[in-house]
Amino acid sequence: PSEVLGDGVWSVPGAGLAGDGPVVVVARFRSWLAGVGSAGLTDRERIDLVAELERVKGAASAVQARATDAVACSRRVVAPRDVGRSVGSMVALARRESPSLGDRFVGLSRALVHEMPHTMAALTEGECGERVAVAVVASQGWRWWKSSQTEAAGALYSAVAAASRGEDPGKAKEAMATLADKYAGTGYAGR
After folding, report:
1. Higher-confidence residue: 79 or 101?
2. Which of 87, 127, 162, 163 has minimal CB crowding within 10 Å?
């Protein structure tokens, strides 16, 4: 049986045993999660559960992005001519999506891991979901700010977090457009 660890956090039976890799731990968590019910909860607790599960989905998307990018980087070394096609297809199969969506996720993963550390941080912390991260990446045609440019990076992080609380990609796009206008020509953004 599960036990409360504090602050409403539950332990997952069998997860994290010595020698278990992340795949095994995540599979056990998924299995445990499948048994979570809401019958004995108040409506407020049910809403809190829904909110926390959204945070879990964001964090899971961040892990998927890091793993996808690691595979793409690895394949660039092994088979550079086939990297786009083979990684996109593998990702599509793993995510149970079409090959074109697999290719898109490879691109999204690269952008999040290498060019958008603050959006990746928001996704990792569950402050936004994958849908908002996709909207933020797709909303602009110019290069993202470097993390060393703290003013712009902090503004970006704040805008993503604030705009994504309601999982409304339109608000995230609007916030990004406002930031783009504000920092245009200041050296914070390229092309």
Report:
1. 101
2. 162
